[in-house]
Amino acid sequence: MKKNVVTEVVDHELCIGCGLCAALCPEEALEMAWNRYGEYNPAEVEPCTRGCGLCLKVCPFADHEEDEDTIGEALYGSVPGIGHRSEVGYHLATFVGYADEHRSAGASGGMATWLLERLLAEVIVDHVVCVAPTGDPEGLFSFFVFDDPEGVRTGAGSAYYPVEMSGVVRHILDTQGSYAVTGLPCFIKAIRLAQKKNPKLRERVVVTVGLVCGQMKSRPFTEYIASLACLPGKVKEVRYRGKSPDHPATNYHYAFTSTAEDERRIFWNDGIAEAWTNRWFTPKACNYCDDVFAEVADVTFMDAWLPDYSRDYRGTNLVVVRSPLIEDLIRRGVQDGGILAEPVPVEDVIRSQAAVVDVKRRHLAHRLYLDLEMGREVLRKRVRPAREKSPLLRREIALKDRMRRSSRAFWAESEDQDAGRLREAMGPDLKRLSRGRTTAWIMALPIRIVIYVQGHLRGNHHE
After folding, report:
1. Are 348 and 279 in contact (CB under 8 A)?
2. What is the per-residue pLDDT across 322-337, written as a single tens digit (0 to 9) for each?
3. What is the dihedral of CA 55, 57, 60, 65, to 10 degrees?
4. Distance between alpha carbon 23 and the CA centroid of its chain, in Å?
5. Mean per-residue pLDDT for 153-161?
6. Mean pLDDT for the chain?
7. What percent of the chain has pLDDT over 90?
8. Strand pairing class (263-267; 253-258)
9. Are 55 and 30 in contact (CB under 8 A)?
10. Could you report the per-residue pLDDT of 351-382, keeping only the tens digit for each?
11. What 3 state SS string does the chain have?
12. Structure confidence at residue 447 as a pLDDT band (50, 70, 90)
């Protein structure tokens, strides 16, 4: 059998479902389809006879010599004034702010929507590719190609739901024009790899807009949270980042509508956080991602998870700019009042995502070490395999990965897909995790006391 993305990536559960392989296959032998876990994978609909390997060359999780550092250097390394940090990649400018007109509908500050509209208004691009709701219970979100601001605005907000790009990439290849493409880090990396192999993509995709990502979620994640919210029937619509004046930005809610038009909502602190932070319904590929900030995108947007901003329920953006074109647009947007934004140190941007950086670097290093110890193939990543020194963190990584596997299997195999039953099944591991955190807190208590006393003494000295 000829090696292809199915044998080398899908069969090892490392597919993230971006769809670039299916879009570019010269034999049209691949088609994106749901797997049993509610994730997109390419499936062979025709035998692969050519064996060209293009599907592997554009796959963000196949074994490549190129990574985000080498791709980023080729794209941005010669830009005057550019800087580089290992955590965030290349950065020309970093901002904090929001767009008043789009803030209420956006997941955070609405600046991504503002930028996409500005790109269309100034005819920098003819089309915008972004994710928007479908109204179809069998696939709640999808990538669309929009040519006007009204269409772009339907894509405002987050979508913690599987989507794939094969259809829109085929559209780009078939339809002349210039395009701005939005996506998560792995999707933008796939676009960049594909641009190296396809001149039309290289010419037509002129702006890439990245979104910070800690992990993706499968379709059952949404079904689970809807069940937790006691939504009767099947989900028809969901808004993942509802804002409430009586809650800080960090405690947003999911709002569901069923096919029977019933409505329910549930807040982050009421159960979403438990599933999210413990990596329930997370694809295995996310365990092997080392890119937090969409390092090969021209601009990256994220929430301002910093104390000065996260209390504001309306939401605020942090922005990493790598393209002089985008920097100019943002600075002019500030001047003409389209957005309110100001420069912010890149250290603050990194600090806002510190927990995610830790997972994608420190935790990843330990996972790669485990693969090495078990004799499994070790993926080539920018992080080197290294055994985690903290026994408590080693235990946490192991427990979360077991819950990740168990949650996927439970929802796929259970006839009664009930949130209560899943939480009951996860209970023993949740208790073990809680005990570990308590132990870590107790062990750190002497250090906390010393820091407190030193601070108190310094305060008295200054008096």
Report:
1. no
2. 999 999 999 999 999 9
3. 160
4. 21
5. 95
6. 94
7. 89
8. antiparallel
9. yes
10. 999 999 999 999 999 999 999 999 999 999 99
11. CCCCHHHHCHHHCCCCCCCHHHHHCCCCCEEEEECCCCCEEEEECCCCCCCCCHHHHCCCCCCCCCCHHHHHHHHHCCCCCCEEECCCEEECEEEEEECHHHHCCCCCCCHHHHHHHHHHHCCCCCEEEEEEEEEECCEEEEEEEECCHHHHHHCCCCCCCCCCCHHHHHHHHHCCCCEEEEECHHHHHHHHHHHHHCHHHHHHEEEEEEECCCCCCCHHHHHHHHHHCCCCCCEEEEEEEECCCCCCHHHCEEEEEECCCCEEEEEHHHCHHHHHHCCCCCCHHHHHCCCCCCCCCCEEEEECCCHHHHCCCCCCEEEEECCHHHHHHHHHHHHCCCCEEEECCHHHHHHHCHHHHHHHHHHHHHHHHHHHHCCCCCCCCCCCCCCCCCHHHHHHHHHHHHHHHHHHHHHHHCCCCCHHHHHHHHHHHHHHHHHHHHHHHHHHHHHHHHHHHHHHHHHHHHC
12. low
pLDDT in tens, 102-122: 999 998 999 999 999 999 999
Paired residues of 89 in beta bridges: 85
